[in-house]
Amino acid sequence: MQATPPKRQTPRLEIRHLVRRYEGRPVVDDVSLTIMPGQVTCLLGPSGCGKSTTLRIIAGVEMQDSGEIWVDGKLVCDTVFRVPPERREIGLMFQDFALFPHLSVADNVGFGLRSGSREARRARIAELLERVDLLRFIDGFPHQLSGGEQQRVALARALAPRPRIMLMDEPFSGLDNRLRDGIRDQTLDLLKAEDTAVLLVTHEPDEAMRMADEIALMRDGRIVQQGAPYNVYTRPIDRAAVAFFSDANVLRAEVNGALAQTPFGRFLAPGVPDGTQVDIVFRPQHVRLDFDRGGTGPLPTPTDGVAARGVVERARFMGHESLVEFRMDFNGGILKATVPNVFLPAPGKVMWLTIRRDRCFVFPATK
Q1: Which of 73-77, 123-127, 257-261, 301-305 bottoms out in mean pLDDT, i.e. has the lowest?
Q2: What value does the CA radius of gyration of the chain take, rounded to a whole number of Å?
Q3: CA–CA separation, 162 vs 272, rounded Å?
Q4: Angle between helices 118-131 and 147-159 (to 10 degrees)
Q5: Could you tell me the pLDDT band of residue 13, with boundaries at 50, 70 and 90?
Q6: What's residue 298's pLDDT?
Q7: Strand partners, 274
Q8: 333-365 burial: b if 16+ Cβ within 10 Å, else e
Q9: What is the CATH superfamily name and number for domain 13-243?
């Protein structure tokens, strides 16, 4: 007897080929996304790339020029049919919290609760405030709370009506670094417990890597790469994608015989025609340092390639690692390396550098 294949789960949120133009210019350009229940997807990209506009279209406060929005397998909006924003069961969280100063904490959290008895609404408010560790402030007012506490009240308010989807637009950027990580983790735990599908807009790669099940990297109105954080980071689609997540060093080289010759040795460039200019891109943490050409440090691996001479330009301790900048003999260029812990060689110190070939990316040259 043949086994019945498992039933495919319906996406909680699906957007198909969204387009939004301002004065003829596409701000959101053929954007498609699928988010399952309990999944956190980060829409990551620089300011002005179309992230917030996409969020506003999904929320229903702005109309697309083309494309469709589906929730739990049902059409919510296209260019003809449109469910009003208040009936989409979508929660919203923004950077400024937007709490009502004249309402108590309880009334802020319960603002979106329209159904149920007064006792049931009060119980839901108390449940959420207890889960964000603010039950003691239930009868207080927003001005009596810190920024982090106000953010947790805003989260409780957004979750009170049990939205199927939560849209979050840079919700943690107003918090200082000391509070941010803890509140992000608490928020994530609460959203997961509610089985809410989350679309988080951010321009901070660290935040996306920390929170997301999936990252959609956006640039100039389009999603250029999408996948699990590890895959987006380790298999970037182009040079700009590498540089968006971290500092990047770039070597320009020409391909001959499927090999690109550089001061660090030859790099494979299979399928690239002879005479083509390529950029070899690598992150500072993949630079290996030695004090002399013989290598006083650990023995080089076969992936290290050829050592190149560099002169220390400056070195700075960054808290958990040191950033060392070298002036190289070729092209007078600057190359960056990071070293764990404290490592502060004096300017003018000569060192020998190698790079891990298995951690380098080869892309067509860009200007």
Answers
A1: 301-305
A2: 25
A3: 53
A4: 140
A5: very high
A6: 41
A7: none
A8: eebbbbbeeeeebeeeeebbbbbbbeebbbbee
A9: P-loop containing nucleotide triphosphate hydrolases (3.40.50.300)
pLDDT in tens, 221-239: 999 999 999 999 999 999 9
Q: What is the pTM of this model?
A: 0.86
Picking from 123, 102, 99, the residue whose alpha carbon sits closest to that of residue 113 is 123
Confidence of residue 332 (pLDDT cuts 50, 70, 90): low
**pLDDT per residue as tens digits for the range 347-361:** 999 999 999 888 899
Confirm whether 13-243 and 247-364 share one CATH topology: no
Q: What span, in angstroms and rounded, lies between the C-alpha atoms of 27 and 49?
A: 7
Tokens 């309880």 identify what position? 106
Domain 247-364, CATH number (from 3.30.240.20, 3.30.1050.10, 3.65.10.10, 2.40.50.140): 2.40.50.140
**What average pLDDT does the structure give for the chain?**
89
Distances (CA, A) of 211 to 59, 160, 200: 21, 22, 9
* Residue among 302, 355, 298, 365 at smallest CA distance from 328: 355
d(CA 111, CA 314): 55
Domain boundaries, the chain: 13-243, 247-364
The dihedral built from the CA positions of residue 41, 47, 50 and 56, taken in this order, carries a sign that is positive
Residue predicted with more confidence, 162 or 34: 34
Query: Which amino acid belongs to residue 31?
Result: V
Secondary structure class of 85 (helix, strand, coil): helix
Instruction: Write the DSSP string, 213-280.
Output: SEEEEEETTEEEEEE-HHHHHHS-SSHHHHHHHS--EEEEEEEETTEEEETTEEEE-TTPPTT-EEEE
For strands 74-77 and 90-94, give the pairing: unpaired
Q: Taking 60 as the threshold, does the pLDDT of residue 334 lie above it?
A: yes
